[in-house]
Amino acid sequence: MICGIDLGSRQVKIVLMHSGQLQKMISYETIEFYRQYGRQESNQLVLCFANLPLGTWDKVVATGYGRNTVHVKGADNIPEIRAHVLGAIWQTKLSDFTLLDLGGQDAKVVQVRQGKIQDFLTNDRCAASTGRYLENMANVLAISPTELGQYSDNPVDLNATCAIFGESELIGKVLEGHPLSRLAAGVNYTIFKRIRPMLNQLHSEVIIFTGGVALNTALQAIIARELNVKVLVPPFPQYNGAIGCCVYGGGDLCG
Amino acid sequence: MGKIGLTTTIPVEVILAAGRTPVDLNNILISSTNPGEKVEAAEVAGYPRNVCGWIKGLYTVANELEDLEGVIAVTQGDCSNTHALMETLELAGIQTIPFAYPYDRDRDLLKLQIEKLMAYFGVSWKQVNEIKQELDRIRRKVLQIDRLTWEMGLVSGFENHLFQVSCSDFEGDWVKFERKVDRFLEELSERPSSAGLIRLGYIGVPPIVLDLYDYLETIGARVVFNEVQRQFVMPHLAEDLVEQYLLYTYPYNIFGRLKDIEEQIRLRRLAGIIHYTQSFCFRQIEDLIVRKTLELPILSLEGDKPSRLDARSRLRIDAFIDILR
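Structure tokens for the assembled complex are given below, as produced in the milestone run.
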């Protein structure tokens, strides 16, 4: 049994895999998780899994934002880009694609050819194209992120480059009286505008879309429509990194 | 004799010929005990948040430096923010002396700029050329350190960076600096060579993040080519001073820099390039030219304020080294 952990900025995702079968998938809110399972040891946060209700495993492989600063006891650490690519290949069985991962705080675009990473780009020092931004904007519109993710037609034009100023711009649009569907579509389009240069640079006919933002169906449609590409969302987009960790640890092997 | 502050590399021979002490303000900033505070002090004075950290740090350093006679501000060929830096320093009562590298590498214009500087300091070509002879001897030794970095694996990426970057002002005292270089070269003769590290090139302005080189070495990679820092040493030593500063690539257009970079990629057998840019710097635009021109993996890295590498940059560096493996 292999345990894969993706220490994300908003959620910690844990997957158990055995003989190529997913056994269990569980996620925790990040801060809550560190509070419950972490403890301070010589100026470092150490994660101890003894109390986790997950059963037993032979090996732990960790990735994600937190792995640089948090010591996961007994785990192998692998870079996030590699974990996500392994997860995407395992989930889709494809080997030529561009992976788009939009998570809680960051955006990654990775070009994969014959199962190997060719190049990658990530957003830098700005959260304006990420899940956190969508959550904030949904909040401004007083709807859920799920509802926000349903509108892609006839978007209002939003220009602010900053996630925070974007909120005030959106409020301005609300006051102008635009319908909710157009406002929400406008928000989804701002994400697309942010990631478009990265997707153009690392172009593929097929985009594998992962991370929590992949659940935004409007964004899936916008990407497919605007770039004339096929957008594939694997069965477990949010667990993709943790699945990749299991694959790295040999959890996909039989026996 | 007073100190003359520099905002970047200029024909330092002129200042030394005039018996003044050149002080590269960038080096003072980054080696100070708390460079972050100096950036913040400039923000408190009214510098905007979205302006390059180096410029803000330079402003505070120049204001704090004792015996500062004046600042040579490079107004063309480096950074246009320097114009406003110069004006705010003047407002603070600091004498500023503009120097411009001609964008089109025009020999006559560069000569005129150097001669204007010489006239300001009241020195002759004979005096300047005498100093150049002395400095060229030291430059050759620092170029030897560079060679021992990429050819022999005896020097760490950071050491290479540090010696090269010090050639903008020779640490204010070239006699002392030469002794330091000699001692280091001697030390190297007893050092074992490091093998098996992934060979990286670092291009762009020197980093404002302090631990980049060390971090790379902890994950099995070493910078064996520091592009701009190497230019500060004047790798194409020419007899004629004007010629030397024409061959210096950094202040002119990016295509000249790329030619030099491409040569060094081949010579030093580099596996990948880190292109560092400063937040809010016009050179961030040039990243697209770099990516289109160079045919090897490139990681674009951005730094804002003086600090250690943040988790996000480390994550990107890890992934980059991972794909080079």
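The helical segments of chain A are 30-37, 80-92, 131-140, 145-148, 163-175, 180-201, 217-227, 240-248. The longest strand of chain A covers residues 21-29. Further analysis is deferred to the final report.
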